[in-house]
Amino acid sequence: MNTKDISLDQAHDALHAALDKAKAIDTKMDIAIVDAGANLKAFFRMDRAWLGSIDIAIKKAKTARFFDMPTGDIGKLSQPGAPLFNIEHSNDGLITFPGGVPITDAEGSVIGAIGVSGSSVENDHTVAAAGAAVVK
Fold first, then answer.
1. Range 49-56 average pLDDT
2. Is CATH 3.30.300.20 correct for 8-133?
3. What 3-state class would DSSP assign to 3?
4. Which residue, among 39, 33, 16, 26, has the nearest Cα to 118 in the 3D structure?
5. Model-level pTM?
6. How far, in Å, CA of 118 to CA of 18, rounded?
7. 64-86: per-residue pLDDT in tens?
8. Which residues, in sequence order, are CB contacts of 1 under 8 Å at separation 6+?
9. Inter-CA distances, 50 with 26, 30, 42, 44, 57, Å
10. Which residues contact 37 (CB under 8 A, 6 or more apart)?
11. Cβ atoms within 10 Å of 51's Cβ, excluding its own
């Protein structure tokens, strides 16, 4: 079986697109890219971005890859009474609020994910989506 994986060039493209979006909305972000195996592939920490957001960005990217869906969608499924309640305690800790987005190739195969942290969850998701959108 041949697993598709994000290339270094694709990871850099995603990082730079996310960085550009973060600058455009005037926020400081930590931006992580993981490969198809959920291993860290690339990372940016913008000047003056929160140190605490480093781990969150990486965990958002991993969470998006582990479940191949945006972390905000997992958050909706993990509320009390929902089918994935308490899932955030699995896998050495998941992040179940917006800011993590799977990255797909031109054929729609998941090849990695991006996680962003450092602002509101809405801004985090916007920046992550901008990064994921450039990879084809």
1. 97
2. no
3. coil
4. 26
5. 0.93
6. 12
7. 999 999 999 999 988 899 888 88
8. none
9. 14, 8, 18, 12, 11
10. 3, 5
11. 8
